[in-house]
Model the fold of this input.
Amino acid sequence: MLDPRILADDPDLVKAHLMRRNADDGLIHSVDEFGALTSQRNALIAEGDELRSARNTLSKQIGGLMREGKRDEAEQIKAKVAAGKDRIAAIDGELETIETQRHALAMAIPNLLHDDVTPGNGEEDNVEEHRWGTPRPDTTDSHVEIAERLGILDGERSTKIAGARFAVLRGAGARLERALINFFLDVHTNEHGYEELMVPYIAHRSVLEGTGQLPKFEKDLFKLEGGLNGQDAFLIPTAEVPVTNLHGGEILDAASLPIKYTAFTPCFRSEAGSAGRDVRGLIRQHQFHKVEMVWFVAPEDAEAAHEALTGHAEAILQKLGLPYRKMTLCGGDISFAAHKCYDLEVWLPSQGTYREISSCSNFGTFQARRMGLRYRPEPVNGKKSKPRAAATLNGSGLAVGRTLVAILENYVQPDGSVMIPEALRPWMGGIKSIVPSA
Done:
């Protein structure tokens, strides 16, 4: 959530950022609605303060008038005090309604954009930062065809269980998925200094509001029909949701920052609006595996942390020898909550193009404000500092299924076997290749 002071005091700035995101007129107009509600709120607060001050003054007069025998005057003042009390109660009710309206508007307004984020309509306008590795020049079969020949992907039986956009991995395929998960986690914890977490795969509505998936993207989530523990609940779309909310409502010590977590979870997405795209195979599924990286830092350290976090995802791709490119997302493609985002796109020979395998975002204080996450800076001149909103960041380190896809297509051999990247072999029990089933 944006700082309400920015929304109220600098609406033109907010609207300029919304236009860079190609926001619709209704959302842009909501900034003016927020300003009008804030003006009403301020006027009501001022009126209430005046009434309370007058009530206190008049209340002190009543006793003196009674002692002086001026009962009629005392009763008139009592009537004024009672009328003021009624008006104060009405003002409190109006303020509660206005605060609800202001909160709803603020929750629907996306984050401000970093200066590096260019205008644009979609992914075709994203800016390439650099490339690593040499793309395989020959066109291979798709990962589905490769995996089916190897006998490691069973699409027919997965459809029998749950329908489209699910997968059953068998034998060496299942082992490769497990090896990638352990490889990612071990690199991030042993080399990059993350603490590993295991978290719930179900989250309450307020938790998804905290990271920005709700209220806007409810159609993309799987909702539990009966709720959970008396609240609306959803299957998580990414580990970002539970891990980032781990410190929601807390005040962290500055000395504890940065905090860096990594977690493996399944992810559940309805993929609303993506009909017809990547319906076969492992690229776009309702359930997939991902290892996530999450940082909590002081706001002034967020940009440097963003570069470091993205570098950790790049390091995984480089260890696996997978060609990729780094893209800065434009205003029309960046997520609702992100201030700046890099996508890492891995080369897929069968498609002759790069496809997203990791999204690394700097959210600034946007998520922290939504979930009440603050930190207390170090004392200044011996005086205790006031808590401030922290900054949050996250990134895929990496999407497991898409990494498996990239390995199949980039390491397939002329005889149909698939070499295991050398860095991954210790996690595969020393297996150097997967060969076609008999």
The longest helix spans residues 25-67. The CA atoms of residues 290 and 384 lie 40 Å apart. The mean pLDDT is 94.
